[in-house]
Write a structure and sequence with these properties.
The complex is a heterodimer of chains A (234) and B (292).
Chain A: E1 3-12, E2 15-25, E3 30-34, H1 41-49, E4 56-61, E5 64-65, H2 71-76, E6 79-82, H3 94-100, H4 114-120, H5 122-126, H6 137-149, E7 155-159, H7 167-182, E8 186-191, H8 194-200, E9 203-208, E10 211-217, H9 218-222, H10 225-232
Parallel strand pairs in A: 3-8, 3-9, 6-7, 7-8
Antiparallel strand pairs in A: 1-2, 1-4, 4-5, 9-10
Helix pairs in contact in A: 3-6
Chain B: H1 2-32, H2 39-52, H3 62-86, H4 96-118, E1 134-137, E2 140-143, H5 144-166, H6 168-178, H7 180-185, H8 190-213, H9 222-237, H10 242-262, H11 270-281
Antiparallel strand pairs in B: 1-2
Helix pairs in contact in B: 1-5, 1-8, 1-9, 1-10, 2-3, 2-4, 2-8, 2-9, 3-8, 5-6, 9-10, 9-11
Bound molecules: adenosine-5'-diphosphate and magnesium ion (MG).
Adenosine-5'-diphosphate (ADP) binds at residues 12, 15, 17, 35, 37-43 of chain A.
């Protein structure tokens, strides 16, 4: 297993948010973590990333515990985080946003370069000298993903890439995720958008109220409309 | 006319020293969100070091002087690194009052340290021969050293601009200003970046002190005077804005310089008047941006 999250409990100050979340991702998989707004998806990602360290439980990365490590060390060990709020650097140009994020992969190689990123996101090349803050929502989403790819991660944590985007752009992002899968990027995807998640992933976890309520293949999830109704219908 | 030119040159020269101070203050605030009131103390430390230890280098001629201008700020930067790793690091996420107390406490502490080491009397740094005397302009004399500061200032501004905008290190600093958590999630040790930025800020404070030692008397109390002016500069220009530090420094320098002519008794108050005006009209400063 590439990533194993084992029974983690995460708090923000006094508020208890995650109640024993466990999940696994293997190399080459695309797994989704679906749940309503406020279910605990982002908190799970932040727990993995060290941005909100779990109080109990373990996060094993390639078999080694990483919970409690600082975020930069976790990133260097090969986990790339694409945050929901995008958090592009508004006063850096598109190229600068990509350049600050560049690092070698854990194998010492760098399959992702600015040139390769531009190949996949031609829009970013057109806008390379523009400030990040002036991009449209869809372009910012592409830039966030591209920026994280520049770190050559072994696993990509994609937090709600479809959020707030027009349907046409959501489709484009979906295409992109499929393309990344072809590039052998392992992906853990957090989404409220079930349709989008099912289209790109093989396995799914349903989270609600800080607890995993279902885990199985996407086909199994589709075969359980009552689960979808209970935890995912709006 | 001649008075105008001389005062303008004097004001710009003073502004350059203020810029060296304010750019460090602003840089540290930009990344760590802490206003370091001890910045003026580090400037004073730099001035005392220049007037005592640094004076030993002057026998070597121009190269000795430039060596001094490098070594003194480096020592101050080292002091800064010690302060950052032992004290400041603990308060970045704390409330402003606590930050204020710590940096103000450090001001008192450093002032006593300087007094213990060098005593209370005023000192001067003998200007190196190649910068001594004055030159004639519009029929009046202007000190060569003042001109030297006028040249160093823009060069330094250019160098800092280059560092911030044209190097990877600078890009990382600017990214950390916007979102330190995101920078660390990209695999960059932001804590190290912060120590580096703090050290650079302290280097600039020390450089300001070393430069000023060749121009005016070095004594206790210069820490408070300069921090108040530098604070006015960053408020006028916009805290955290590099261009703002330059613009604010030149403005305050000129205001002080002409203020002395117009209102000798109250010139010290003018920077505050400028600060108050800016705070009313544009609370985030001339080139700053409203807080997120
Ligand atoms: N910084 C925070 N402090 C306190 N509570 C938070 C914070 N961030 C999120 N929460 C709460 O934690 C719960 C889970 O949030 P989150 O993980 O962001 O959910 P999701 O990403 O699934 O929408 C929500 O109830 C939310 O209100
Ligand atoms: Mg979320």
């Amino acid at each position: 297993m590439l990533l194993q999250v084992q029974d983690i409990h995460t708090y923000y100050g006094l508020s208890h948010i995650l109640f024993g979340v466990s999940l696994e991702v293997d190399r080459g998989e695309c797994v989704c973590l679906v749940g309503r707004n406020g279910a605990g998806k982002t908190t799970t990602f932040k727990s993995i990333m060290g941005l909100a360290a779990p109080r109990t439980g373990a996060v094993l990365w390639k078999g080694q515990p990483i919970q409690g490590n600082p975020p930069f060390a976790i990133a260097r060990s090969g986990i790339g985080f694409v945050p929901e709020e995008r958090a592009i650097f508004p006063d850096l140009t598109v190229w600068e946003n990509l350049d600050v994020a560049h690092k070698l992969g854990t194998d010492g190689r760098s399959p992702w370069t600015v040139e390769r990123v531009y190949e996949i996101f031609p829009r970013l090349e057109e806008r390379k000298n523009q400030m990040g803050g002036t991009l449209s929502g869809g372009e910012q989403q592409m830039l966030t993903i591209a920026r994280t790819l520049m770190g050559n991660p072994d696993l990509l944590l994609l937090d709600e890439p479809s959020e707030g985007l027009a349907p046409l752009i959501v489709d484009a992002i979906g295409e992109l995720v499929l393309q990344l899968k072809q590039e052998d990027v392992t992906i853990l995807l957090a989404e409220q958008n079930l349709h989008f998640s099912l289209a790109v992933s093989e396995r799914a976890y349903v989270i609600d109220d800080g607890r995993i309520q279902f885990s199985g293949t996407t086909a199994e999830l589709e075969a359980h409309p009552e689960i979808i109704q209970k935890y995912l219908a709006v | 006319m001649d008075t105008f030119v001389i005062q303008l040159l004097g004001g710009l020269s003073k502004g350059m020293i203020l810029f060296v101070l304010a750019s460090g203050l602003s840089l540290i605030f930009g990344v760590m969100r802490v206003i370091n009131f001890a910045h003026g103390s580090l400037y004073m430390l730099g001035a005392f070091l220049a007037a005592t230890v640094g004076a030993q280098f002057l026998g070597m001629g121009p190269s000795g002087f430039f060596l001094m201008l490098l070594l003194v700020p480096l020592i101050v930067a080292l002091v800064g690194i010690v302060m950052e790793t032992t004290l400041f690091r603990r308060i970045y996420t704390k409330e402003h009052l606590l930050q204020l107390l710590l940096t103000y406490g450090l001001t008192l502490l450093l002032s006593d340290v300087v007094r213990m080491i060098w005593g209370g009397e005023y000192r001067t740094l003998r200007q190196p021969d190649f910068l001594r005397g004055g030159f004639e302009i519009v029929g009046r004399k202007f000190p060569i050293y003042g001109l030297f500061v006028l040249i160093i200032g823009p060069l330094l501004a250019l160098g800092l601009w280059y560092l911030l905008n044209r190097t990877r290190w600078g890009r990382i600093i600017r990214a950390a200003v916007a979102n330190p958590d995101m920078v660390s999630a990209l695999g960059i040790n932001v804590r190290l970046v912060m120590t580096g930025v703090f050290a650079l800020g302290c280097f600039l404070a020390g450089l300001g002190g070393a430069l000023v030692a060749g121009q005016s008397a070095v004594g206790l109390g210069m820490d408070v005077n300069i921090i108040v002016e530098a604070f006015a500069v960053v408020v006028v220009g916009g805290l955290g804005s590099f261009g703002g530090a330059l613009l604010g420094a030149l403005l305050i320098g000129i205001i002080l310089s002409f203020g002395i002519l117009v209102w000798p008794g109250g010139a010290q108050l003018l920077p505050f008047a400028a600060m108050a005006l800016v705070l009313i009209a544009r609370p985030w400063g001339l080139l700053g941006r409203p807080e997120r």
